[in-house]
Amino acid sequence: MNETQHAVVTGAGSGVGRATALALLRAGWQVAALGRRREPLEETRALAGVLAGGLHPHGCDVADEAAVAATGRAVLAAFGRVELLVNAAGTNTPRRGLEVLAPADYRRLIETNLNGAYWTVQAFLPAMRARGAGTIVNVVSDAARQASPKAGPAYSASKFGLLGLTQAINAEERARGIRACALLPGDIDTPLLDLRPAPPSPEARARMLTPDDVAACVLFVAGLPPRAVVEELLLRPA
Q1: What is the CA radius of gyration of the chain?
Q2: What backbone torsions phi and psi does residue 168 show, to the nearest 5 degrees?
Q3: CB 20 within 8 Å of CB 55
């Protein structure tokens, strides 16, 4: 496309969010990169190299409704419009089983993984409605298909909810020209693995998906004609 495209990517300081932000920059997008801490966002900017001018870091905890709303206003004021929102922020906890899961950790996972995506959708959806176009990609997990001890109940509940939110966006907004996709990747070699009770070995990580694999799916979905809606995309290691 000849016209500059604008994207918002949460969790852009590491993992899938970082890979997606960099892939969008390489494809010519302007990218608002959201992350809870500013230092990892600056690392993402450094990795962008000569494309760093297209990356616009915003320190923002997606679990903070007010902070997300304020960041949304700032991004829209700078960009004028947002064609793509990618919700890639997510977390887990080492003590994740029902027997040991702390209430504070349960709330933190729901607030980040599910509520955070809801707040960002609400921050940018009205502008998409006004334009009659927009794509929302939620990086979910195959844990939204089947709960397991590996994922833990809080993570699974948050991802089941995020899948439901994606479906709800399509159900309500499709007629307004807005489409949503739930990406459901299996194991990805990201820093999130370090939060497992027993982090996987280097050999196990080498067999997993990479953040770049998931970022390629985001670009595929975003690049389809507006008439095409990929509602769900399940991606697993070979």
Answers
A1: 17
A2: -65, -40
A3: no
The catalytic position among 84, 155, 173, 218 is 155
User: DSSP string of 145-202?
Assistant: TS--TTT-HHHHHHHHHHHHHHHHHHHHHGGGTEEEEEEEE--B-SGGGGGSSSPPPH
pTM (two decimals): 0.96
- Provide the terminal-to-terminal Cα distance of the chain, rounded to the nearest Å: 33
Say which residues have a Cβ less than 8 Å from residue 37's Cβ, sequence separation at least 6. 13, 59
No. of H helices and E strands in the chain? 8, 7
Is residue 162 predicted with pLDDT exceeding 70?
yes
Is there a contact between 85 and 72 (Cβ–Cβ < 8 Å)? no
The reply to whether 155 belongs to the active site is yes
Give the residue extent of every domain in the chain.
6-235
CATH 3.40.50.410 assigned to domain 6-235? The reply is no
Model confidence pLDDT, tens digit, residues 27-66 = 999 999 999 999 999 999 999 999 999 999 999 999 999 9
Q: How many residues does the chain have?
A: 238
| 181 neighbors 136 (Cβ within 8 angstroms) | yes
State whether residue 88 is helix, strand or coil: coil
pLDDT of residue 2: 61
Angle at 150 between CA 236 and CA 111, to 5 degrees: 95
DSSP state of 195: G
